[in-house]
Amino acid sequence: MTISGKDAGTIARASFVGTALEWYDYYLFGTAAALVFNRLFFTTMDPTAALLASFATFGVGFAARPIGAVLFGYIGDRYGRRPALLATIVMIGIATGLIGFLPDFGTIGLAAPILLAVLRLVQGLAVGGEWGGAVTMAIEHAPVEKRGRFAALVQVGSPVGTLLSAGAFSLVLLFPSETFDAWGWRIPFLMAFPLLLVALWIRVRVEESPIFKDLLAQEETVKVPALDVFRNAGGRLVVAVMAALLGVGGFYMITTFIVSYGSNTLGVDRQVMVNATLIAAVAQIFVTVAMGRLAEKIGPGKVTMWGGILTAAASFPIFAMVDTKSPLMITLAITLGIVLIAVAYAVNGALLTELFPPKLRYSGVALGYNIAGATSGFMPLLATAMLGFSGNQSWGAALILVLIALITAVGGFLGERLRVQDKRIVAAD
């Protein structure tokens, strides 16, 4: 199969836009869970219980993601990558925008946190199919020698989404506290609507994957792809979950949990915590692009393995830096943490897509990534609960990060040895 480099780049950029919107929505919710929802939607609880309830709502979206992976994996492997991706991006954008209109507990009582959880579930279902489809489309349009960089371009959507969401929150945090609580926090959520229109306009113009077209022509599609993944590729699925764990769970440990820990436990100004994530996101972009190129030379599994090892080694020092309460040290800690996690995350797309044959690819990638997400989405909740056992000391959270980093290192080591050879795309120019 042949495809022009220009067309491959267009597809990768369209996939990047969807991933950027996904991360904008998810990081936005995580920041709001740490700074807003605990005070406005769970007001009848004591502060610690309210924060735990807020993070539990945050984690509900991750629990829904494997269900979304099954649903949209079925559509993507049976009827096409393109229709699945159009549906997911619409669901994500609408659910996020509606949160901006949601009345708080003081207005509608118990219905407020219930509706918040429902919208989070919708987000989770959609995201369950979004990333897996985005990287599948990018890889299946990419010339073989450029797969690492095109998969990494999709991953750049993560720091861009972070920049957009953290930047939006930084601006509204400039409002007086009363204004921020009354309506200022809603603005970043409402911005999801115009972002959705832009993303949808770009994605409508995307052509179907040539590899999927070949599957249809050869009548090689599978009736129940998710079932076949569990039945015939269960070991590969476990490796995919391991390899993806750090990129999802580690990110939220460094951002969502540390933002909450710094502002609520250490008493650091909220603006300092959010601004640190902005700086880290900029650094992540450059690391992600570099790791994509490195994966083309040494393999994505090896990059993943070393990313996990380096993150594990730096976990305790990172939290020790945060504990100083120094704005400079906190910024350095968050930046270092995100950069190290980005080493493994940058190549998740390249590694996971080559763990599964094309007829199971969308479902396998989506399930692997989102089972990891369902597991790690509750990491901020677990880390917050650990503070109670450790007397508000950060060593428990650091230990959690070490564990998931080492699991990912093993996943990368095994994944490099399990990569499949499918029908390859070559460049026509």
UniProtKB/TrEMBL annotation:
<dbReference type="Pfam" id="PF07690">
    <property type="entry name" value="MFS_1"/>
</dbReference>
<protein>
    <submittedName>
        <fullName>MHS family MFS transporter</fullName>
    </submittedName>
</protein>
<keyword id="KW-0812">Transmembrane</keyword>
<dbReference type="InterPro" id="IPR005828">
    <property type="entry name" value="MFS_sugar_transport-like"/>
</dbReference>
<feature type="transmembrane region" description="Helical">
    <location>
        <begin position="367"/>
        <end position="389"/>
    </location>
</feature>
<feature type="transmembrane region" description="Helical">
    <location>
        <begin position="48"/>
        <end position="72"/>
    </location>
</feature>
<feature type="domain" description="Major facilitator superfamily (MFS) profile">
    <location>
        <begin position="11"/>
        <end position="423"/>
    </location>
</feature>
<dbReference type="Pfam" id="PF00083">
    <property type="entry name" value="Sugar_tr"/>
</dbReference>
<feature type="transmembrane region" description="Helical">
    <location>
        <begin position="303"/>
        <end position="322"/>
    </location>
</feature>
<keyword id="KW-0472">Membrane</keyword>
<dbReference type="InterPro" id="IPR036259">
    <property type="entry name" value="MFS_trans_sf"/>
</dbReference>
<dbReference type="InterPro" id="IPR011701">
    <property type="entry name" value="MFS"/>
</dbReference>
<keyword id="KW-1003">Cell membrane</keyword>
<keyword id="KW-1133">Transmembrane helix</keyword>
<feature type="transmembrane region" description="Helical">
    <location>
        <begin position="150"/>
        <end position="175"/>
    </location>
</feature>
<feature type="transmembrane region" description="Helical">
    <location>
        <begin position="187"/>
        <end position="204"/>
    </location>
</feature>
<dbReference type="InterPro" id="IPR020846">
    <property type="entry name" value="MFS_dom"/>
</dbReference>
<feature type="transmembrane region" description="Helical">
    <location>
        <begin position="237"/>
        <end position="260"/>
    </location>
</feature>
<feature type="transmembrane region" description="Helical">
    <location>
        <begin position="328"/>
        <end position="347"/>
    </location>
</feature>
<feature type="transmembrane region" description="Helical">
    <location>
        <begin position="84"/>
        <end position="102"/>
    </location>
</feature>
<feature type="transmembrane region" description="Helical">
    <location>
        <begin position="272"/>
        <end position="291"/>
    </location>
</feature>
<feature type="transmembrane region" description="Helical">
    <location>
        <begin position="395"/>
        <end position="414"/>
    </location>
</feature>
<keyword id="KW-0813">Transport</keyword>
<feature type="transmembrane region" description="Helical">
    <location>
        <begin position="23"/>
        <end position="42"/>
    </location>
</feature>
<feature type="transmembrane region" description="Helical">
    <location>
        <begin position="108"/>
        <end position="129"/>
    </location>
</feature>
